[in-house]
Write a structure and sequence with these properties.
The protein is α/β, with parallel strands linked by helices. The protein has helices at about 50-55, 80, 100-105, 105-110, 115-130, 135, 145-160, 175-195, 205-210, 230-235, 240-245, 250-255, 275-285, 315, 330-340, 360-375, and strands at about 5-15, 25-35, 35-40, 65-70, 70, 85-90, 165-170, 195-200, 215-220, 220-225, 270, 290-295, 300-305, 320, 325, 345-350, 355-360. It has 16 helices and 17 strands.
Length: about 400
C-alpha cells in the first residue's frame, strides 16, 4: 500500500504476538488520512480491536511504529497519548456515579480547563449530539436509554476536541432501530467535524455506510484489502474478501452509489396553469403515458396522466408526487422509495428544483457504470455500457 502524505495516523510494520506464540496482528502497514473515517472490519478474532487499542497503546505492540501527525508515539507516555484521542466503546464506559455533564467534562477537567470553559464545552457538545442540556446534563447514566448513553459517550470523546477519534463497536449494543439512528447522526456529525476516525465493527453494512475507506482483516491479523467502500464491494482483492462481502455485494453497492444527474431520464413536463387538453395532447404526441407537473418556479408539484380529459387545468388533475429523493442520495434509498410507494420511477430534486427521474432501468445502468468504473479504474463518465437487447 502506498503511503498517504497527509496521514494523521500511520502504522508501519505494527504487529502483536503474545507469549504463547499467537499472532493477533501481522506486520500491519496502514495510513489513516486526516479527516477521514476508516473502518476496520473482519471476522471475530481477526485483530481489528487489537489494532485499535495499539493505536492508543491500551495494548502495546510487539513490533513496528505508530505515528500520530508524523510523531512516533510508540515509546512515549501512553497517558498523554490517550488524552490526544477520543475513545468510544460499545458499552460507553460512562461513570455511573457521575452526571452526564460530569462524564462529558472528564478530559477537559484532567487537562486543567477552567470551570466556565468546561461548562460551555459540555453544553455545546450535548446540543451537538442531540441531547438538550437543560434536560440531560444533570441526569445519571442509568436514567438514559442505550442510544442516549452512546450519544453521551461520543460527546465525552469529543470534549477536548481531539484530532483523532477511536471507536470500538460503538453502536453494537443497541437495537437495530436505535443503531440506524445513531449511525445517521454520526454521519451528520462527521460531515460537520471531519475528525480522523478509526472505527471497528463486525458489520459490513455499517462499514459501508460510514466509512471513507475500509480495511478488511482476515484471521491472524492479515490486512486483505484497504480501499473505498465501492471498490471493496465492486472489486474484491482476494477470495477471502469476496467471501466476506458476500454474494449480495451488488445490493450492498446500492448504498454507496449516489444518484448523479447523468443517471436521470427526462420525461415531458407540463405546468400547473396549462389547459389539461393541451397538456395531455402534447404528452400523447410525445408517446408518453404521463408527464411531470411543475409550478411556475419549476418546483415539483406532481404528475398527470396522458389519458386525462376534461375542461380543466393541469392543477385540477395533477396527482401528488409521493416518491422523490434529493440528487446525491444513494441508489439504495431511491430503490426503497420506489418499493415503498409501488412507483415505477422516483423524482430527483436539487434543493427545490426538479432535475429528472430515476427509473429501474436507469438505476441498474448507474450501478453497472459505478462497478465498471472501479474495475477499469476510469471516471464513470468514460464508461460505455453494453446494452443487452430485450427482444
Amino acid at each position: 500500500m502506498d503511503a498517504t502524505p497527509d496521514a494523521m495516523i500511520r502504522l508501519e510494520g505494527v504487529g502483536k504476538r503474545y507469549e504463547d506464540g499467537t499472532v493477533a496482528v501481522h506486520e500491519l502497514d496502514l495510513d489513516v488520512p486526516e479527516g477521514e473515517l476508516v473502518v476496520l472490519v473482519g471476522p471475530s478474532g481477526c485483530g481489528k480491536s487489537t489494532t485499535l487499542k495499539m493505536v492508543n497503546r491500551l495494548i502495546e505492540p510487539t513490533s513496528g511504529r505508530i505515528l500520530l501527525q508524523g510523531e512516533d508515539v510508540t515509546h512515549g507516555d501512553p497517558v498523554k497519548l490517550r488524552r490526544r484521542m477520543g475513545y468510544v466503546i460499545q458499552q460507553t464506559g460512562l461513570f455511573p456515579h457521575q452526571s452526564v455533564a460530569t462524564n462529558v467534562a472528564t478530559v477537559p477537567r484532567l487537562l486543567g480547563w477552567d470551570k466556565k470553559r468546561t461548562q460551555e464545552r459540555v453544553r455545546e457538545l450535548l446540543e451537538l449530539v442531540g441531547l438538550e442540556p437543560g434536560r440531560f446534563a444533570d441526569r445519571y447514566p442509568h436514567q438514559l436509554s442505550g442510544g442516549q448513553r452512546q450519544r453521551v459517550g461520543v460527546a465525552r470523546a469529543l470534549a477536548a476536541d481531539p484530532p483523532v477519534l477511536l471507536m470500538d463497536e460503538p453502536f453494537g449494543a443497541v437495537d437495530p432501530i436505535v443503531r440506524d439512528r445513531l449511525q445517521a447522526e454520526f454521519v451528520r456529525l462527521q460531515r460537520e467535524l471531519r475528525k480522523t476516525v478509526l472505527f471497528v465493527t463486525h458489520d459490513l453494512d455499517e462499514a459501508v455506510r460510514l466509512g471513507d475507506r475500509i480495511a478488511v482483516f482476515s484471521d491472524g491479523g492479515h490486512l486483505e484489502q484497504y480501499d473505498s467502500p465501492p471498490r471493496i464491494l465492486g472489486a474484491p482483492a482476494s477470495d477471502f474478501v469476496r467471501r466476506f462481502v458476500g454474494d449480495d455485494r451488488g445490493l450492498k453497492r446500492l448504498s454507496v452509489t449516489p444518484i448523479e444527474i447523468r443517471d436521470l431520464e427526462h420525461p415531458p413536463i407540463v405546468h400547473l396553469p396549462d389547459r389539461l387538453t393541451d397538456a395531455t395532447g402534447r404528452l400523447r404526441a410525445a408517446g408518453a403515458r404521463w408527464g411531470v407537473v411543475l409550478d411556475d418556479d419549476d418546483a415539483l408539484h406532481g404528475w398527470v396522466a396522458a389519458d386525462d380529459t376534461g375542461d380543466a387545468t393541469v392543477a385540477d388533475r395533477a396527482r401528488r408526487m409521493e416518491a422523490w429523493v434529493p440528487v446525491g442520495t444513494s441508489l439504495k434509498v431511491a430503490f426503497s422509495e420506489m418499493l415503498q410507494h409501488d412507483a415505477g420511477w422516483v423524482a430527483v430534486l436539487d434543493g427545490d428544483r426538479y432535475v429528472g427521474v430515476l427509473t429501474p432501468a436507469t438505476l441498474h445502468e448507474a450501478l453497472r457504470r459505478s462497478v465498471e468504473s472501479d474495475l477499469q479504474g476510469v471516471d464513470p463518465d468514460n464508461i460505455d455500457l453494453e446494452v443487452v437487447p430485450t427482444t
